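Supplementary notes for students who missed Thursday's class. We covered one full example, reproduced here. Read the sequence, then the structure, then the short commentary at the end.
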Amino acid sequence: MGNNFLANNVQSFLPILIYFVAVLGFAGFSLIAPHLVAPRKSTLVKDMPYESGMDPVGTARKPLAIKFYLLAIVFLLFDVELLFIYPWAVALNAEGGLSQEARLPILVVMMTLLATLAIAYFYAWRKGVFQWRHR
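Structure (token representation):
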């Protein structure tokens, strides 16, 4: 009984094992092959950083204006907001998605979230985060 059970389980997982070995083999080959095939001659042009076909000028460590960071944070804020709003909207519209008892509390929470985001948006707008040109 025990030996037959083990044999059946090994046979059922054999395709997964073969796939796992193939994936590991491909990954290993992909990591090792460039070291075996690639030319090893190092030149000044090869060691120079590639910048969209242009010769690099100056340093890459230039400070950026704070507005770029603020805009990135505002983008992330509204991007993460969609992670909360989309499932709520789908569940609200789906048949049997939200019970009648849960709709009002969830609506209050979502309106609070949207109000908080609106306040953050208007605050960023008043601070000039969205203005790219100085007057």
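Commentary. Residues 66-126 form one domain. Residues 91 and 98 are 6 Å apart (CA to CA). If anything here is unclear, bring it to office hours.
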